């Protein structure tokens, strides 16, 4: 289904068409306030800033075409540095500023901390990257949606790769103790043990931001592991793999989408070569993805970063829901998201009753000659 927002937004193989008739938008303000929350500074800014750019590209096109039923979309951008204690302040600020919908947050821990505030205000939130399964499966956050598959799906992809492709039987599983990293690692551990094909010889957390990870590397070495599965983000992963290689521990390193970012390769340098990481399935040949990337290069003179396609898709989905519902009310938006499919850079998607996107998935990538290559 094509996004209906008054005029053609852009054209590829297909274009977004004018709605013949849409309900009058139920909204008291002069603008639709579109929040964008995530890490816009700090070590994880490379995950959050692409989402700001994605939202800006879509919203600029919508506003240039006349907005939604004559209302312009106003961006409210707030930085949470991917820290739960800051995310609560970020959410409070957006709510007090009258935000109508929120694109974000980026990290699972920050998202979990912020969601109760949005829930109390009946504000719909959609993340391009928060993968912790409990965010949708617990039923605690009926206002939460996402355009990325959850960690249990991601962990299963990685475990199947380790067992069936790499064919290892002794695995060390480590994590950063956070909602995202530990959750991913726990699923990986469970899937490995349930397979009957492998032994988890080490399961341990590390302290994020530590300068020296030699202790965990020694434990991995003494465990006899043939491979390491790591749950967490690129700052810790880059330090751990550098230490592994410097200690001449050459076993395979497999991680998650928190590591599948070019910053990991830049920081780890030559030591990143050969490392594996799962990430959203490559949809770069999708015509809408091609157009979105072209628009990003044209406006920002750079390639888009991590989760750009998921954020672009989330922005399209949110605005389409507002247009279809004729409202920014939570229940009306949920109904539109769960009943309307929409063409996006990550594919033709819609959302189930829990808020998970149907039509998205994960693939395994490897660093080859300094870039991530989908396997």
Structural account:
The strands form three sheets. The protein has a seven-stranded mixed β-sheet with strand order 7-6-8-9-10-14-15, with helices on both faces. Strands 2-1-3-4-5 form a five-stranded parallel β-sheet, with helices on both faces. Helix 2 (84-96) runs parallel beside helix 3 (108-120), helix 5 crosses helix 6 (179-195) and helix 11 packs across helix 12 (330-339). With 375 residues, it is α/β, with parallel strands linked by helices. The chain has helices spanning 45-64, 84-96, 108-120, 134-137, 151-165, 179-195, 214-223, 234-246, 262-268, 287-300, 308-325, 330-339; strands at 31-38, 72-79, 101-103, 124-127, 144-146, 170-175, 199-205, 227-231, 252-255, 276-280, 342-344, 347-351, 357-358, 362-368, 371-374. The chain has two domains: 31-148 and 284-361, Rossmann fold, CATH 3.40.50.2300; 151-256, Rossmann fold, CATH 3.40.50.2300.
Features:
single chain, 375 residues, alpha/beta, Rossmann fold, 2 domains, five-stranded parallel beta sheet, elongated
Topology:
Elements: E1 31-38, H1 45-64, E2 72-79, H2 84-96, E3 101-103, H3 108-120, E4 124-127, H4 134-137, E5 144-146, H5 151-165, E6 170-175, H6 179-195, E7 199-205, H7 214-223, E8 227-231, H8 234-246, E9 252-255, H9 262-268, E10 276-280, H10 287-300, H11 308-325, H12 330-339, E11 342-344, E12 347-351, E13 357-358, E14 362-368, E15 371-374
Helix pairs in contact: 1-11, 2-3, 5-6, 8-9, 11-12
